[in-house]
UniProtKB/TrEMBL annotation:
Residues 1-19 form the signal peptide. It holds the Pfam family Peptidase_S10. It comes from the Eukaryota. Belongs to the peptidase S10 family. It comes from Zea mays. SUPFAM superfamilies: alpha/beta-Hydrolases. The lineage of its organism: Eukaryota, Viridiplantae, Streptophyta, Embryophyta, Tracheophyta. This is Carboxypeptidase.
Amino acid sequence: MAVAMASALLMLALATASAAVSGAGAPWRSRRPRPEADLVTGLPGQPAVGFSHYAGYVDVTSGGGGGKALFYWFFEAEREPDKKPLLLWLNGGPGCSSVAYGAAQELGPFLVRSYGANLTRNAYAWNKAANLLFLEAPVGVGFSYANRTSDLRRLGDRVTAQDSYAFLLGWLDRFPEFKGRDLYIAGESYAGHYVPQLAELIYEGNKGASRDRAISIKGFMIGNAVLNDATDQLGMVEYAWSHAIISDELYSAVRRDCDSFKEEADGGRPGKGCSPALRAFLGAYDDIDIYSIYTPTCLLSNLSSASAAAGSARPRPARLVAAPRLLSKHVRYVRRLCECGCCWHATDLPAVARRRSGIG
C-alpha cells in the first residue's frame, strides 16, 4: 500500500511538474529544439543526476484537434545520450501504468520504495545503456486520456497499436534528434501483444513513409509475455520442470491430464485429473517466488514475534497475481487482479479506463 501510494504521488508530481527551464543538462541538448515545457526540473525526493528527463502528453487524435493524448516519461541516457539508441518501454495488463510500475518499480532510474521517504537511484536502470521512453497506453491508463467515451469503448489491441504508432511519430517531431536513431521496443506481460503488434505497424508504415517519417526500428524484447493461453500455460509448466521445481511424474501428469493445454476449439480435452495436477503444480511454489525463483522469500506470515518464537508461524502460500484462463478456471486461489491494480480481463478494459479517467 505504501509503495502504491508513493507511486501515485510520484505520478501526480510528474503531471504537475514545473515548466520552468533550467540551464542544466548535457551540451548536446542545444543542437536541436526540445519541448522545454515538458522538462522535469525536479521531483520530491529526487536525488541529483547528470541527465535530463521529460514528461508530458502527445496528441494521438485521428486528424489532430485534441481529445485523446498519451502520457510519456523520457530519460536521457546517463552518458553520451547522442550515441545511445532509443528504447520504448510498455507495461501490459492490459491497463498497467508504465510510469507507476515499469519506471517507478522496475527499470527506471528513480525507484519508489516503501522503506524510504525519497526516490531511490536504481543501480540497474536501463538508461545506463539507452535513452529510455516510458509510454502509458492505451488511453485511460495512468495519465493518458480521452475526452470522448466512444474512444474508450473502442479499445483493443489494434487501437492500442495505432495510437502508440501515432504517439511515436508525434514524439519524434517533438524530439527530432531521435529521428533516424535506432529504436528498440520492450515490454512485459500483456505487452507480449502490444510490442510485436506495434513493431509490425512500424514496419508496414515505413514502406510508404518519407525519410523524415520513417522509424528506424531495430528489434524488440518481451519478457514474461502473454502470447496465447496454450503457449503460456505449457511454458509455465515446462519452465518449472526444466528448473527442477516439479518432478518428472507431475510434469507428465499435467501434460497428459490437461491435454498439453490445447484449446477446446483445437480438439483439447482436459481430463478429471487436470485440476489436482494444476493444484500440485502451483503447490510446488509455496515457498518459491514464481516470478523470480532464485530470490529469497519470507516464509513467515504477519504474526507477532511471540507467536513466531512459539513456532506457530506458517509458510505463506505463493499465489499468481495473474494467470492464463485454464489455470484460473481450475485453481480457485489464483488471483486475477495484480497487486498494482493493473491486470484486468481484456473485456473489462473499457470500463476500467472509464473509472480511471472519470469519463462515462
